[in-house]
Amino acid sequence: MSPIRVALVDDQALFRAGIRMLVESQDDLAFAGDAEDGRAAVALAARSRPDVVLMDVRMPQLDGIAATERILADAEREGREPPRILVLTTFDLDEHAARAIRAGASGFVLKDADPEFLLAAIRTVHRGNAVIAANATRELIAHGGRGNGRRAAPPSWQDLTAREREIFALAAKGLSNAEIAASEFLSEATVKTHLSRVLAKLGLRDRVQLVVFAYEHDLSGD
Predict the structure, then answer these.
(1) 208 inside domain
(2) Residue 31: what pLDDT?
(3) pTM beyond 0.90
(4) How many CB atoms lie within 10 A of CB 28?
């Protein structure tokens, strides 16, 4: 199999050098270039066609959210497979990371994450799955709180059954299907079915978007 081509976008040269060394140390990964801002990132993605882009969200010229949107839009317009974008952030789950997920990123990890976690995240998003920072859901619950200016739940929220809302709340807390099944005395297959219906009714792509949805609409405690 061909190695996974990884590109990096970050405005800190030392950080870029460290990530490059980490990627190049892996036999199944190949470094596809780096960029120091969003504008350069768009050009890099078009030129080197990486499989995965590690994208900082706070940068000069063009931030990571706008760069994510442009990279994915360019790939769609040209009819080619878009890269998976993994957001790098210094915060567990803030508005920037949430907006990046909405823009099409496949997940986010903390900049100070364990190297093995970052490597696993790269491989995971390349397989088409989503990744969320290990502590993000705990941070969501801790700082969710009513009255913080987040949006009201859309009408589609009312389409969920009571059981589906229970599954939603547990998934938003970061529980796996197996953990939800044990908690609710259900089979994993049943949990998977409920979760699929929740995602479909809310128009969400994956569990990462579910967590972001809970964060944005303050539903983590429902």
Answers:
(1) yes
(2) 97
(3) no
(4) 12
